[in-house]
Amino acid sequence: MNKETDKGIQEADTEVRSDDTVAKLMNLAGPRLLIPADLEERVHENVHHEWRSFISRRNRLRWAIPASLAATILIALAFNIRTPETQLQPIGNIAHVVGVPDTARAAFVVGDTVYAGDNLETSTNHGVSIALAGDISLRIAANTSLRLDQADEFTLTRGRMYIDSGERIYRDRHMTVHTAIGSATDIGTQFSVAYENKRMSVAVREGRVDVAHDQSIVTAEAGDKLTLRPDLDTVFDSVSPYDPSWNWATSLAPGFDIENQSLMDFLKWASRETGKTLVFSSDDVRMAAMGTELFGSILNFTPAEAIDSVLVTTQFRYRIDEQSITITKQVRAR
Question: By residue range, what is the domain housing residue 70?
Fold first, then answer.
């Protein structure tokens, strides 16, 4: 055998051994990240090239690179092609809890943070209120299952929910609730969505809601309640803003911080939460309410309880009937 032939055999033998070695070293590196086949092939080629280059510089020594170094190369290359991790951003926090949960999954604590993708479930006689960015209130009734898809998009699989997106009509940000048979999108409003037994109902307390169903869009305005069922016509009913059917949502209203607030601001909050019209017996009483500053706390009080607790400490009196809250001023005896 001449020198040229011997040299060729040695080079071929070294190439085969280097391929085997690269394969072994890649195994030593442990489980790899799941990457596209073309990228994995390029990683293998890069390591193979480094190996052959090193062999050439060291006159083709059999074991020139420690296994740990080859593994390090693989890991470094893998990190270069890894998709950057996304940092989850909170979309709101638990603002109010009513009742006692009967399952661990429904155990919410005021202040807990919620994230997009969270699945929330409430149990019997148990409800929760969530404060979203932009002073938006999301309330979940008992026996409800809801997924928070995004900060302004939700999927209701069972039960009832309520959204108060604020007093600014036609605001830029709209809230959308999906169910198995339709979707409801608000136009600056207070509204509820229920889904049970393949039936979706949408009630509008204030503003407007567009409901997409069966490739069509139906609009519901304040005072409307519509019901959707598969393969049946949409049914419209009427519902007043003070109807008892809203009571569950009112009970979950987030607390109003009265410290250094005017009596007028507090009464507007109570009126909005109860759906009742705020009435003053005279302009003088209205002006006096605007100039009266409050102190203390009414956290964990329902709006009706809060009215009683606040006004009893002032010169004002009130009367609540089915439709309105009337504010008067105490007449002092002479």
Answer: 3-80
